[in-house]
Each structure stands twice: as structure tokens, then as C-alpha cells.
């Protein structure tokens, strides 16, 4: 197995993924594979030179950190842990004393992505190190034509998101409706997706024969790089009698295709990371005078997502570090899921996690075959089944410049806060549908923050209530919120109707409250809402 210098792996993964905490005792530590540090039995059987991903290792826990370092030292492996930089001096001293090479993983980076990226880089290095005679040059279209000429069929190459990345175009090739639709749309047709995802194809180590009624017979082989599945290669033949014994040829073609698809994946991942960073910069207002970041593609629709609050309002112990960590991990996984789901439906999204909100920008240009509303419903359904959590999503109108994008984020944040306070049902919402609530929130906040926007009546009401144990403020707010309906307001307060009427008269006498004047009623409602609500 081909080894790769640890330093080269770090460079390939880039600084925003991993960085070196300690180079270890070896002069040039090397990595031959990636393994999860979550099973002592598996790790003990792991060959030397692997990179152990410390999933669940808390660097703030000396016992857990020492145990992970001992495991890495005993197996002659390197260790990767989630660690914000710069690392503490005592942590660095503990690591260096063991002689174990240790990498710091960006705490914002999901372990699944780290594993996939590292595995892909190592697999590409292993293929690149093979003799030149085992490799074929040219792009994927040239490869598809070459294979089609050898086997006498029509070849198509698909990625894991059902995108047709290449196909043969030699004269007089066999074709059926599935191939025709696929080439025209550059995607696996809807009615053929089940065949494309046939479990026998994706789990087999060899070529699999597949045919559906009314379609041409096909041979399929999975394209892999190590354990990472990159796509599949399919060859269609005119009829059953014309299918040759082409297993070795298709398997060799799949191995060569893996080189090109790894390059495509690295390019796509790099572009995705660039878009994500640009969106984060834009939403945080760090674009400055330079204007719109290059990776932000507008016009587009900005979507914000946050975890839904259960009907009872309980979301776990907010002070529990474990609960907070699991919630944060779920949001990071939601970022990955949003990107993958959007890309699978034809979009080129950008995504960012800021605080407790996930933001996804869906460009309008070159959008997918489904609307953003359908995409959001699909994403929320997948999140519920994959993450076992429910979310609310709020979409903005289409925005075309940086300033409207920032306003869209403010509207989305206000809408998500409003939905959380109301314990709204999980689902997709739009800021335009919630515009009255957003305007009211801004008015209330302005009244709360600016004393010049208040008449002073509510301050006197609250002071009197505190001194004399009365409830004039709560009574007036209930009466106003029920539009002067004495029966409804008294029911909400659990008092007799005559008691409510008496309190209203006394409030008018003591504080000069004028409930007959529409202007004063409006101002009183705003002030009471601003100063008596959390």
C-alpha cells in the first residue's frame, strides 16, 4: 500500500480542514489509511501508519486525550482531534511528550467530511503511484468512446448524484428511451433512478448485468477510489445476444474513470468550500468596500434553518454541555445535508452555520428542476429521517445584491426567532408571509430601546403595580389584545368580568389612560408589549 507523507496530506486537505499540532518523533511520518478511533478492537487490528480520527475525543479531558495518545503510540499511528487554534501550551506539551504525530481538525468540520476527503486524497495518491502503463489519458468523454469502441456498446458514466458526467457518441450506437432522456437532460431519468440505485450494482465488486422490461440490456460497474464510491459506468448493448464477456474491460475502465472523477470531486469540493466561505463573509458583513464576494452567486434565494421547538417548549438543559454539543453537531450535519440535497436536485448552493442558524443560498441562475419550496420540503423530510430532529426553514424573496442579502438575513433571523417563541410547527415558511409579525417585532424593539418613543404611562403603571401589588399593566394588555372583548380578556386573566371593568375604570382615573382614543390605544399597546413582555 502506498504511503503519503503526513505533511503532504495536510497540504492536500488545506489549512481550513486540518493543521499540524505535532510532527511526532519520526522525521517524516507517513499515512497509509484512515481509521475511526471509536472501537478498541478495530484499532488494535489496524496496521501501523494509519491516521486515527478521534471522534468523540474531548481535548479538554486529560484522561480521554491521554488514552487516545496511548492508542496512537501503541499502534504507531497518527492522531487527529478537533481543536481550535492556537492550542494551549499544556496540551501541546502533553502531545509532544508522547512522540505521536497529531493533527488539529477544524472544530466546524464534520468528521464525515474529514474522513471522505482524507480517503479520497490517499486513494488518488495510490492510483497516481502505479506504472504509467496502467493508466489511460484523456477526459471522461474520450474514455467513454474508447470503452464503447472496445465492447461494442453505448457507454455512460454517472456520479453518485445521478448526474451523467460523460457518455460515448460514436456513430450507430444502440440507444433506447432511457439513454435518450439521460443524454438530453444530463441526468438519470426519473423513471430509471430505481434501476440506477439497484443495490446489486452498488455493493458488487464485479460487473453486474441489468435489464428492465422494454429497455436495452446493460452491464454496470461501480467506480471506486479505495472505499469511497464515486459513481458508476454503464454499457448498453443492442440485444441479449450481443452482450460480450467484457467484465475485465469495464472494471479497468472504472479504475481509470476514478482518476478523473476524483479530480472532478476535488474541484467540486474546492468550489463548494469557496462558495461557503464567501457566503459566510457576506452574511457576517466582512465584504467591506470590495462588495459582493466572488463566490456568492446572485440573484438567489436565502434560506435560514433552525431546530424546531417542541410543543411544550422544552429543548433540553441549555446549560448541559452534552446537549449543546449534540445540537451543534446536528447543525453541522444539516449544513452537509443541505449542500448534498441541493446539489442532487440541480442547484449549486452555498451554506454556512452562524450561531444556531444554518443559511443556504440557492442561486436563481441555472436552478434545478424543482422549485425552492419543493427542495425545502425534501430537505426537511430528509433531515427528520437522517438526523432524527425537526427543523423550521424560512426563505427570502429573490435577492440580487449584497445589501438586500444582508436585509434578507435580518428578516430570516427575526422570523426564526418569532417562530421559536411561538413553538411553531416544523416546516417551511417565507419572510413575506411573516411580514406583519416582523414589522411588529421591529416596532416593539424600537419602543423598548428608545425612551423618546414612549409616553411614560406604562412605566407609571408598572411602578404602581410593584408598589401596591396591583395588576393594571397585565389587565390593560389582555384587554387590548382581545380588542376590547371583556369576556375574552377576563377569561384569559381568570377574573370576573366586573373585576376587569373596575380595573379599567381605575386605570383611567389614576393614570389618565384613554381607551376611547385610537391613537392612545395603539401607543399603549406598543408600550405594554415592549415593556411587559420578555
Q: How is this structure best described in words?
A:
The chain is an alpha+beta fold and 534 residues long. It is built from 19 helices and 17 strands. Strands 2-7-6-5-4 form a five-stranded mixed beta sheet, with helices on both faces. Strands 9-8-12-11-10 form a five-stranded antiparallel beta sheet, with helices on both faces. It has a five-stranded mixed beta sheet with strand order 14-15-13-16-17, with helices on both faces. Helix 3 (62-74) links the parallel strand 5 (50-53) and strand 6. The model is unreliable at 127-138 (pLDDT under 50).
Q: Characteristics of this structure?
A:
534 residues; Udp-n-acetylmuramoylalanyl-d-glutamate--2,6- Diaminopimelate Ligase, Chain: A, domain 1; Beta-Lactamase; five-stranded antiparallel beta sheet; 19 helices; 17 strands
Task: Lay out the secondary structure.
Blueprint: E1 4-5, H1 6-13, E2 18-22, E3 30-31, E4 33-36, H2 40-44, E5 50-53, H3 62-74, E6 78-82, H4 89-98, E7 102-105, H5 111-128, H6 140-151, E8 154-159, E9 164-167, H7 177-185, H8 193-196, H9 199-203, E10 208-210, E11 218-225, E12 228-236, H10 247-283, E13 300-307, H11 321-344, E14 350-354, E15 357-363, H12 372-386, E16 391-399, H13 402-421, E17 427-430, H14 435-449, H15 457-468, H16 472-481, H17 486-493, H18 497-511, H19 518-532
Helix pairs in contact: 5-10, 6-10, 11-12, 14-19, 15-19, 16-17, 16-19, 17-18
Amino acid at each position: 500500500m502506498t504511503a503519503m507523507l503526513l505533511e503532504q496530506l495536510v497540504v492536500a486537505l488545506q489549512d481550513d480542514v486540518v493543521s499540524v499540532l505535532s510532527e511526532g518523533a519520526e522525521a517524516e511520518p507517513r499515512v497509509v489509511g484512515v481509521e475511526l478511533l471509536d472501537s478498541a478492537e478495530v484499532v488494535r487490528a489496524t496496521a501501523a501508519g494509519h491516521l486515527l480520527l478521534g471522534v468523540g475525543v474531548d481535548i479538554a479531558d486529560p484522561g480521554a486525550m491521554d488514552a487516545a495518545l496511548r492508542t496512537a503510540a501503541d499502534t504507531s499511528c497518527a492522531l487527529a482531534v478537533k481543536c481550535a487554534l492556537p492550542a494551549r501550551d499544556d496540551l501541546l506539551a502533553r502531545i509532544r511528550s508522547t512522540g505521536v504525530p497529531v493533527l488539529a481538525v477544524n472544530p466546524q468540520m464534520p468528521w464525515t467530511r474529514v474522513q471522505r476527503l482524507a480517503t479520497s486524497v490517499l486513494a488518488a495518491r495510490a492510483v497516481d503511484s502505479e506504472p504509467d502503463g496502467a493508466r489511460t489519458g484523456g477526459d471522461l468523454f474520450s474514455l467513454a468512446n474508447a470503452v464503447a469502441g472496445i465492447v461494442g456498446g453505448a457507454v455512460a458514466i454517472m456520479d453518485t448524484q445521478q448526474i451523467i458526467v460523460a457518455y460515448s457518441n460514436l456513430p450507430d450506437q444502440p440507444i433506447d428511451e432511457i439513454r435518450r432522456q439521460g443524454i438530453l437532460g444530463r441526468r438519470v431519468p426519473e423513471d430509471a433512478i430505481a434501476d440506477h440505485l439497484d443495490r446489486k450494482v452498488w455493493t458488487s465488486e464485479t460487473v453486474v448485468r441489468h435489464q428492465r422490461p422494454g429497455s436495452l440490456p446493460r452491464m454496470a460497474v461501480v467506480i471506486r477510489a479505495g472505499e469511497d464510491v464515486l459513481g458508476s459506468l454503464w454499457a448498453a448493448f443492442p440485444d441479449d445476444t450481443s452482450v460480450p464477456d467484457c467484465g475485465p474491460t469495464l472494471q479497468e475502465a472504472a479504475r481509470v474513470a476514478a482518476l478523473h472523477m476524483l479530480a472532478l470531486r476535488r474541484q467540486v469540493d474546492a468550489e463548494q468550500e469557496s462558495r461557503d466561505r464567501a457566503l459566510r463573509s457576506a452574511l457576517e458583513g466582512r465584504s467591506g468596500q470590495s462588495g459582493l464576494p466572488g463566490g456568492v452567486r446572485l440573484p438567489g434565494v436565502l434560506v435560514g434553518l433552525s431546530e424546531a421547538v417542541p410543543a411544550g417548549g422544552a429543548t433540553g438543559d441549555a446549560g448541559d454541555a452534552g446537549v449543546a454539543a449534540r445540537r451543534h453537531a446536528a447543525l453541522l450535519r444539516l449544513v452537509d445535508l443541505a449542500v448534498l440535497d441541493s446539489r442532487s436536485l440541480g442547484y449549486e448552493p452555498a451554506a454556512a452555520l452562524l450561531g444556531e442558524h444554518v443559511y443556504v443560498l440557492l442561486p436563481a441562475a441555472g436552478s434545478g428542476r424543482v422549485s425552492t419550496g419543493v427542495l425545502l420540503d425534501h430537505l426537511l423530510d430528509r433531515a427528520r429521517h437522517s438526523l432524527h430532529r425537526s427543523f423550521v426553514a424560512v426563505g427570502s424573496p429573490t435577492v440580487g445584491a449584497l445589501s438586500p442579502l444582508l436585509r434578507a438575513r435580518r428578516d430570516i433571523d427575526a422570523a426564526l426567532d418569532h417562530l421559536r417563541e411561538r413553538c411553531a410547527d416544523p416546516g417551511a415558511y417565507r419572510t413575506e408571509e411573516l411580514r406583519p409579525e416582523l414589522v411588529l417585532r421591529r416596532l416593539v424593539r424600537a419602543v423598548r430601546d428608545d425612551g423618546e418613543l414612549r409616553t411614560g404611562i406604562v412605566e407609571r403603571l408598572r411602578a404602581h403595580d410593584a408598589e401596591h401589588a396591583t395588576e393594571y399593566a397585565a389587565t390593560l394588555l389582555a384587554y387590548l389584545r382581545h380588542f376590547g372583548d371583556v369576556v375574552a380578556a377576563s377569561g384569559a386573566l381568570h377574573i370576573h368580568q366586573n373585576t376587569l371593568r373596575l380595573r379599567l375604570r381605575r386605570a383611567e382615573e389614576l393614570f389618565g389612560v384613554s381607551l376611547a382614543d385610537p391613537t392612545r390605544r395603539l401607543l399603549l399597546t406598543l408600550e405594554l408589549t415592549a415593556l411587559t413582555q420578555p
